[in-house]
Design brief:
Elements lengths: L6 E3 L6 H9 L3 E16 L4 H4 L2 E8 L3 E7 L5 E6 L13 H11 L5 E16 L5 E10 L5 E6 L4 H14 L3 E2 L4 H9 L21 H25 L3 H20 L6 H37 L2 H4 L3 H22 L2 H15 L9 H4 L2 H22 L6 H20 L6 H40 L4 H32 L2 H11 L4
Antiparallel strand pairs: 1-8, 1-9, 2-3, 2-6, 3-4, 4-5, 6-7, 7-8
Length: 511
Amino acid sequence: MTENTNYFEIPANLTIKKFISKLSKQVDLQIISQQYTIKTFYDSFDWRLYSANMLCEHKHSQKNSELRLVNNKTGQLLSSMETEQVPDFSQLFTDESFRQLLSPELQMRALLPLCHLSYEAYLINILNKDQKTILRLQVDEYELLNNRLQLLPLKGYEKAHQKIAQLLQDKFNLLPSASCTVLNEALKHQGRKPQDYSSKLSIKLKPEMRADKASQLIYKHLLHAIHINEAGTIDDTDSEFLHDFRVAVRRTRAGLSQIKNTLPAEIVAKYASFFAWLGQITGPTRDLDVYLLSYPNYKEVLPESLQDDIAPLYDFLMQKQQQAHNELAEKLKSPEYTKQLLEWETYLKQSLPKKGSTTEANQTIQELADLRIWKVYQRVLKEGGAIEAGSPPEALHDLRKTCKKLRYLMEFFQDLYPAQDIKRAIKSLKGFQAILGDFQDYEIQELSIKQFSEEMMANLVASNTLLAMGVLVQYLDVMKCKARNHFSEQFTLFVEAENKAMFTQLFKHKA
């Protein structure tokens, strides 16, 4: 017998009435209830719960309204609660069990409805000779999907559960199914599938593909990411929509500057300017999102006696974020934005000429990838090797930008290289990048908190709040210095012989 025998799919030719009638000839049963139910599945936009093997489903009927968290592999009920409304974010759940299960997975992402299903839900008791209930069955009758059956075992009657599960397979030819199959089938009707969005790049390239065609594919992939995150950015559904939107914009800018000469120069100039503008107008809102996401940490690092005094900073940041977001939303709904993005999309849809306009355009993408990655990698080594203890912060910031270009190139072209090797190379770069990112983030946050304190002082904020913000600035300065001091150690690890050999083997251009 199959291990998971709690969920079964009923064949399309077996109606619920016929199934119950046939089952009643095999066992003593009693229909307890029949009610119209609407089930809504929830997850984050990027499928964080599904990726963690969890299904979040809200069942609403005339009698009750229940939110359930289920393991989508085993069907095990992880938690349930009675609620009419589903909170948008994990921290808003009053039920501690739900908060503990959802928060590590969702983090800052909103819980969004994936799809709605309506069905007739039958609850059936299976009785023994003494008319005691030994097992419960829930049978769901759908309009568009095959009907489903779930066994609800009762403690002390494990043998009855096994016996009925075996009966369903032997006499009714029912096949056990995972609890997530209903969601999968419902999504299929919408032309979707689970995990159909991820911020991670996965672009299918062939080594012999012409470089201009490959670059066209890369830009199309990034444009799709911009489009799909656009509405959530405008609506401010959660902060990650804008984050992913900006990443797609940054990657496009990196592609235009680093995948050199595969597009006509006038096209590159025009859209490099457009995407630079997009990066500029989205920056202030993203910075404020980061400060709001960092606020719990800001509070935690303060002495306990000052933690309550920092609260006005949160209100101040919220007000500024809402103002910045409103300005951004107007710009993303403007004719300037929509016209240029549509023109970029139209250009990318055009058929390429039989022969590319430049030598680089006619190269294979493997040749171009090797050449560009190796060249930028050499620049990283040169810039990093020139940084000393007395080097200005700008030197580290410039190196960080070069590292980003290198990482984006490696991610664009990762399909051209052995999977484990390219993952290892990207991981080594990410570890080095992290310290550069920390240094810049702490420096910018330190300067911003100083600026905010001046603005709040003009608004006559309490002196204790300014004191707490001063302590926070000191903490950020300490962390910035710590990151700066770790640079040399991290760079040494990045340029060690084994790492250099790996980059050389993967990318060194074959002349």
